[in-house]
Amino acid sequence: MNIYLDAIVVLLTFVGLLFFHGTTVGILRFPDFYTRMHAAGKGDTLSTMLILFGFAAYQLHHPSTATLLVAGKIIFIAVLVFIASPTATHAIMDAGYESEIGAWSAKDGFVSSCLIRKEKGE
Amino acid sequence: MKVIAALFSIVLGVVLLVAANDLPIWGDPESPVSVHLSSYFIEHSVEQTSVPNFVTAVLADYRGYDTMFETAVIFCAGITVMTILRRSHRLRKKNVPPRPVREGQDIIICSAARLIVPMMQLFALYVLAHGHHSPGGGFQGGVIFGASFILLALAYDLKTVLSRLKEKTMMLVSGLGVLVYAGIGVLCLFLGGNFLDYSRLASILQVTEIEARSHGILGVEVGVALTVTCIMLSLYADLASGGEMDEGL
Amino acid sequence: MEVNSWVLWQFDVLILLMVLVCAVVALQLRDLVASAISFGAYSFFMCLLWTLMLAVDVAFTEAAVGAGVSTVLFLGTALHIRRRAKD
User: Fold this and answer.
1) Rounded-to-integer distance, Cα B153 and Cα B159, Å
2) Using a CB-CB distance cutoff of 8 angstroms, which residues of chain C are in contact with residue B150?
3) Where are the alpha helices (DSSP H) in chain B?
4) CA angle, A104 as apex, A99 and A105 as ends, to 5°?
5) Other beta carbons within 10 Å of B249
6) Predicted local distance difference test score (pLDDT) of residue B46
7) Shortest distance, CA C36 to any CA of chain B (angstroms)
8) Shortest Cα distance from B16 to chain C (angstroms)?
9) Chain A residue with the nearest C-alpha to that of B118
10) Residue B147 to residues A32, B48, B80, C71: CA-CA distances in angstroms?
11) Which of B179, B211, B177, B183 is nearest to B195 (CA)?
């Protein structure tokens, strides 16, 4: 029983750390603001939630009222992260778009956002 | 000028580091604090106040006088910022360029704020009421409650918040918080004890003296939370709108 | 040291270094908004440090006031005054 639980905890935490690694690489290596925020928002949310679920599972080693309560609180934090983190990413992205930060495209490199708006006909 | 400042801070840092050498090492059981002070509170706070979290017991009971004036300091800070910054539209300086205002509100951010704000306020009340048993208390609860209003102001705008919590109400409630704190102290005085000696409340509350101290701590924490909530929101409203109370960030 | 052997002392030093880095960055940045964000990060590391010292109440206050509200207050102020610092 305990060994399976341990395996689940280690697996969740490891996959979470793997996604964190991907997020970091994405933030460092992606070419422009929008793609970097894309990496940060998605990877950060998923990896934080995976690691938090791992922590919650770790609490179940000695099931009692106290540990179940702690696990429940950790799940609450995961729900909060699931709501708040993508919203924060959206807010930052939106602020960047409003203040006309340029984007990168594979065809013609770095484009300022005035051109993007012109193409969209705004 | 910058060189002088750097030199000054380096000298100060070295002096502080040298002084830190004389302090007892962290968590040293032989240090004076651990021998005389901490052990007393750890051993006696539960039997004297029936509050398991002795940080709260020390903060609101043993040194309740300090905490009362901390609350008063926060109140004064809010009043000062309001006095300096608050101004009406008539006095607006012409040379300040108006900041670009976005039309409409972002539906994603507003929906998320609608989900999060009630949870935050519930958590703030939990922190306030559960300060006897877990980390927390009036100050943290009040800050979280104020932050929930600030989040509302960030997601919608300042007018939405100020229509729910009028500026006049805000300042009245922040004063009321200090009044609640000092009032409980004076009540103890009238009941024949010292200032802030909560055990005298036992005759009113119909409980034992030890439980009365616990209830007194809760009453005081509510006062702190009222003040801190309203002052945090008032600070944000004054600072973010430049004292005009028209728009947030 | 025996007293805090439940956690690696290297972890303490790492967080202390991050506190220092955040403080220096917050002072050195020209952009006041970025400086405020860096100060928020400083508060978070300070909060971690308090937690490591088992001063959970102080850590809670630091997280709520230092990292939460005061960052917003700094941002609100920074947008109203000249955004770039002179020195």
Assistant:
1) 8
2) 69, 72
3) 2-22, 32, 39-49, 54-57, 64-85, 107-129, 138-155, 158-164, 167-190, 202-205, 209-240
4) 135
5) 17
6) 85
7) 14
8) 15
9) A80
10) 32, 34, 20, 11
11) B183
pLDDT higher than 50, residue C2: no
Distance (Å, rounded) from C-alpha B239 to C-alpha B206? 46
In chain B, where are the structural domains located?
53-87+107-249
pLDDT of residue B227: 95
| Tokens at B125, concatenated | 């009340």
ipTM entry: 0.85
Which chain B residues have any C-beta within 8 angstroms of a chain C C-beta?
1-2, 25-28, 53, 55-56, 99, 127, 135-137, 139-140, 143-144, 146-147, 150, 154, 232, 235-236, 239-240, 242, 248-249
- Token digits for A64? 């009692």
Per-residue pLDDT reduced to its tens digit, B197-232: 888 888 888 888 888 888 999 999 999 999 999 999
DSSP A111: E
Domain boundaries, chain A: 2-120
R_g (Cα) of chain B, nearest Å:
23
Q: Which residues pair with C84 in a beta bridge?
A: C31
Cα dihedral C40, C42, C43, C48, rounded to 10, equals 130
| Cβ proximity of B32 and B113 under 8 Å | no
- For residues B224 and B176, what is the distance between their CA atoms, to the nearest angstrom? 10
Q: Which pTM value belongs to this model? A: 0.87
Contact C30, C84 (CB under 8 A): yes
- Cα-flanking dihedrals φ and ψ of residue A110, to 5°? -80, 125
Instruction: Report how many Cβ contacts below 8 Å link chain B to chain C.
Output: 63
**Alpha carbon of C58: minimum distance to chain B alpha carbons (Å):** 9
Positions of chain B with pLDDT lower than 50, given as ranges: none
